[in-house]
Amino acid sequence: MSVPKYDEIMPAVLAELAKPNIGMLEWKSLEDPLAKYFDLTEEEKNTEYESGNGRVFLDRIGWALSYLAISKLIERPKRGYCEITKVGLSLVGKKDEIKAHVKGKITEHDAQRKANKEADDSVEPGPVLNSEVTPDEALNQAAQNIRDNVYEDILDTILSKKPYEFERLVVRLLEKMGYGGVVKNAGQVTQQSNDGGIDGIIKEDVLGLGRIHIQAKRYKRDSVIGREDVQKFVGALAVAQSNKGVFITTSSYSKAAIEYADNLNGSTNVVLIDGARLAEFIYDYDLGMQTEQSVIIKRMDSDFWDKMQDD
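Above: the chain sequence. Below: its structure as tokens.
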């Protein structure tokens, strides 16, 4: 099954904490029994957010515990530990009642917090529980949506430029990614006429003994590059006496082209980069990008707080 939502995890948390002789429990120790309860595979259990901000299942357990604590169904005797309350025990096994109880308490909690801050009455309380995602997931999804829109803009802009500009762009991108190291002017675009199927070259060392050859195809987004084109590039590498090639396009590759590149013998290595990966690389390596806004999320430093003696 897929990773359960935080509201699906809440009843399972209470059931686990209600077991005999459990008492106070370190919250992260709930991960394995809950994974077993939901019959998750190791891959599902360890799935990470695309942003890299931690594992999805563990994050959802953390938010389930937060909502249960605010709703007084569990308590936190000390940092990193949790324990079921009498109210929590009374609701074990009652999924609908747990969800309704938590939603009501969170709404009260948010309304009180707004009142304390003299917030605008038009703001809806407790928006998180109106969806199936945690605040972290909502933030990650919003960030990914923004990235996806920028990816589209990147490719549309590339397609509006001259083909030669695309060749220069991909050479600069590979330099940004670290290829060429400290070699001055490591990347170069080949002459447009008689380039022999090679659009750019990256020198890997000062003497130029190691080289990466590049082919760049600025095609429409719905175009598909087939095996024949990749074979021609491999032939061009052989003529250039090179065993390293990168084929970059704004479009995509056919299954046969991908399989051909994957199955080349060890004497020649060809990496295929399609439009989607190209846009991601440009974004991640800040080529022609500028930071518009940063959101800083802070968490408590466990090492700092755990050094203090518990009461």
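The radius of gyration is 27 Å.
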